[in-house]
Write a structure and sequence with these properties.
Elements lengths: L2 H14 L3 E2 L2 E5 L14 E7 L9 E5 L6 E12 L2 E7 L7 E6 L4 E8 L2 H8 L2 H23 L8
Antiparallel strand pairs: 1-2, 2-3, 3-8, 4-5, 4-8, 5-6, 6-7
Length: 158
């Protein structure tokens, strides 16, 4: 199986799952707050973990308390108060950090992989027009595969 086919299948899986595959979360970076570690347009792949699996220095994806937006920043510190984790994070390019709290059974993204610039492609494929284009491409590939499989063989005796 070629890398193109593997990439195509992976893209379909990510898009049809809403960006989440079991214990993984896929996101496109939209701001420069983590430059130079993570750039705008990079694809970030997170493993979904509980807060007790996070350590100082890890890159974590969390919901910003006031807006609910997903943010990926570096963990500066975690302080436990019983069942509550008070977390301080800061973007590598930011001068000010943010504080947020979660319970011990909350799900947090821990960055496992960064793929440079692929987030632009995944982001485009996540739009309505991108999904229509993906469906058209899948139909064209399907027809091409059928033609290749059922094409009559050439007579090699002449």
């Amino acid at each position: 199986m070629s890398w193109t086919a593997i990439t195509f299948v992976a893209a379909i899986a990510v898009l049809t799952s809403g960006g989440e595959l079991h214990k993984y979360q896929f996101m496109t970076v939209l701001s420069g707050s983590m430059i130079p570690t993570v750039n705008v347009g990079d694809l970030v792949v997170d493993t979904v973990v509980t807060p007790d699996r996070l350590r100082d220095g890890d890159l974590a994806t969390f919901r910003q308390p006031d807006t609910g937006r997903l943010i990926t920043h570096r963990i500066q510190s975690i302080l436990w108060r019983g069942d509550i984790a008070d977390v301080i994070t800061r973007g590598d390019a930011n001068s000010v950090g943010e504080n947020w709290s979660v319970t011990s059974d909350s799900k947090i993204g821990k960055v496992a992989l960064r793929v440079p610039r692929i987030g632009y492609v995944v982001g485009a494929l996540g739009t309505a027009l991108g999904q229509i284009g993906l469906a058209v491409l899948a139909a064209i590939l399907g027809v091409w595969i059928l033609v290749v499989i059922w094409r009559p063989g050439r007579d090699r005796t002449s």
